[in-house]
Amino acid sequence: ENTPRLPVIWEHYQECTCCSESFIRSNHPIVADIILDRISLDYSLTLMAASGHQAEAAKAETMKKYHGEYILCVEGSIPLGDDGNYCCIAGKSAKETFLEAAEGAKAIIAWGSCASNGCVQAAKPNPTEATPIHKLVKNKPIIRVPGCPPIGEVMAGVIMHVVAFGRLPKLDRLGRPKAFYGKRVHDTCYRRPYYDAGLFAETFDDENSKKGYCLYKLGCKGPMTYNACASMKWNNGVSFPIQSGHGCIGCSEEEFWDKGPFYER
Ligand code: SF4
Ligand code: SF4
Ligand code: F3S
Taking every annotated instance into account, which residue ranges of this chain make up the domain NADH:ubiquinone oxidoreductase-like 20kDa subunit (predicted)? Predict the structure, then answer.
């Protein structure tokens, strides 16, 4: 209770803001507890009351006062094309503000597939040269939390680990937290017994589909996708894509947007 709240700067670059949307729906822990009691969210253009000059001043103050101590969260990829003109905030390019904020950060969290892998903005021919953040900064620890978006409880779990233990969670060779990305969706999918038995839906509306058979022949990428969707599920454990009748499209894997088509093997 006496631990000072961890200062956090949360940047938004080329993204759709659904990572923030996912985060604010975390129920375990409840996100209000994180934002109000555990961290000091000093800058987030989505979740802070201030805007414009006031918001930029708050960020500048945190970067100065907590140099080397704050956590930098990044939502979105960074466009390098056309001198970075595709994404500018407060008169500076995304690259400029990212490098500036990264310099004094203790660690960086790459939220979602945009910051981790470039995501759909980086789809061929990648007109803005959308770039994931680990390609721009090499001298800071970076936690990659891919998914489009990541599960809210995964995001909350990652940030709470840093708050509670003062260090990064255990990461795999790609920089993803092992606790959430250690298994494939396929490994814990409730349709797995059908896969093992060779029982597959052939179309989205056939009898096998109605019986809940495996969606592999409809393009499910669960066997190649590392994520916790099948075990933690979404919307407070209610469901996940496969339970809703659609195969996994591999949204937490690099270049999933170019590795389609989504509806064929
Ligand atoms: Fe949106 Fe997906 Fe990017 Fe998150 S990773 S900001 S959900 S496009
Ligand atoms: Fe694996 Fe997908 Fe079939 Fe589930 S639906 S068992 S993830 S192939
Ligand atoms: Fe994404 Fe597949 Fe989970 S599409 S949300 S990784 S089931």
Answer: 16-162
